[in-house]
Amino acid sequence: MTASKPMDSAAPTVSVIGASGYSGAELTRLLQRHQGVKLQHLYAFSQAGKRADDLYPATGCPMTYLPYEGGTQSDIYFLALPHGEAHSLVPALAAAGKKVIDLSGDFRLKSTQEHEAFYGSKKPAEAVMTYAMPELFKEEIASATTVSNPGCYATSIILALAPLFRGAGGMPKVNSVACTAISGLSGAGRSSKTELSFAEMSENVRAYKVGKHQHTPEIMQALGTSSTDPSFAFTFTPMIGSLVRGIYSTLTLSLDSPAEAQAIRARYAEFYQGAPFVRVRNEMTEVRHVAHTNFCDIHIPDSGRSSSLVVISAIDNLLKGAAGQAVQNMNIMLGLDERTGLL
């Protein structure tokens, strides 16, 4: 919410480590106008010494990026770093009693085996945080001091499936899910890659990491199962398309008994009744409906009574899939309305 009341001088201070990437820029934009916190420091590595509004004029933020050399001056830290870099920073911040919200995949998975298999990097056995998807784990987030922000694909897909897996009494069992999801180019980060250049991706769509995408075990974990011993068959085909931002997921579900799409839709509306950023729409959703917002839109096409079901979801990968959801989690951790600074 964007009330124009003056900033409380006792408001918690916030810093962003990794502030010069796309998610970091969105965090900068959201946090500097947030009425419940004070943005204190922006830390970056290769961009240290530059001003945020020179690199990202849309942020309107005149702060200079600083090199992070340790230190725990702020009350809250957002880590918007490449995978593998948060492990070494979080212990000191946590030991100092700071609230930490990590946007990488370093702390999402409970299973060390799955982390190493899908991320290709070692992980300390104790490196697990509260998995911070507000619509599913709000109470756990509220009492946590360190949380792991969900991945972008994972957010789109978990929210599209959760009502049929969590407390879904009376609903048909899901036997299998086949998901195709298209992401915007910003999901790959700001670093230059030839295969993501305009010349390569304009008017183009391609699949990648089929069968081995790192968000697969995260999705299964949030739905109460695992990728190594799944309770349902899951096929995930991630794709990258010629749009800057957004994720559009189409999921085809096989059910163990026929169901009316209208009854499924009612289940979703009830499940997300208290979730301000999930909208169950009667009309087909599109990426443009959610771009530059923290909303996840879900649509269930009317297919009559059938054992097959299609669920479609759309999010902005940089907001609901990253920075916006991270601020939503911060709000919950601070006891604020989770919409604060996001509408």
From TrEMBL:
SMART domains: Semialdhyde_dh. It holds the Pfam family Semialdhyde_dhC_1. InterPro entries: AGPR, AGPR_AS, AGPR_dimerisation_dom, AGPR_type-1, NAD(P)-bd_dom_sf, Semialdehyde_DH_NAD-bd. Residues 13-144 form the Semialdehyde dehydrogenase NAD-binding domain. The keyword Transmembrane does not apply. It is found in: Cytoplasm. Coiled coil: none annotated. Its EC number is 1.2.1.38. Keywords: Amino-acid biosynthesis, Arginine biosynthesis, Cytoplasm, NADP, Oxidoreductase. Pathway: Amino-acid biosynthesis; L-arginine biosynthesis; N(2)-acetyl-L-ornithine from L-glutamate: step 3/4. It catalyses: N-acetyl-L-glutamate 5-semialdehyde + phosphate + NADP(+) = N-acetyl-L-glutamyl 5-phosphate + NADPH + H(+). GO terms for molecular function: N-acetyl-gamma-glutamyl-phosphate reductase activity. Gene3D superfamilies: Dihydrodipicolinate Reductase, domain 2 (3.30.360.10), NAD(P)-binding Rossmann-like Domain (3.40.50.720). Catalyzes the NADPH-dependent reduction of N-acetyl-5-glutamyl phosphate to yield N-acetyl-L-glutamate 5-semialdehyde. Belongs to the NAGSA dehydrogenase family. Type 1 subfamily. This is N-acetyl-gamma-glutamyl-phosphate reductase. It comes from Chlorobium phaeovibrioides. The gene is argC.
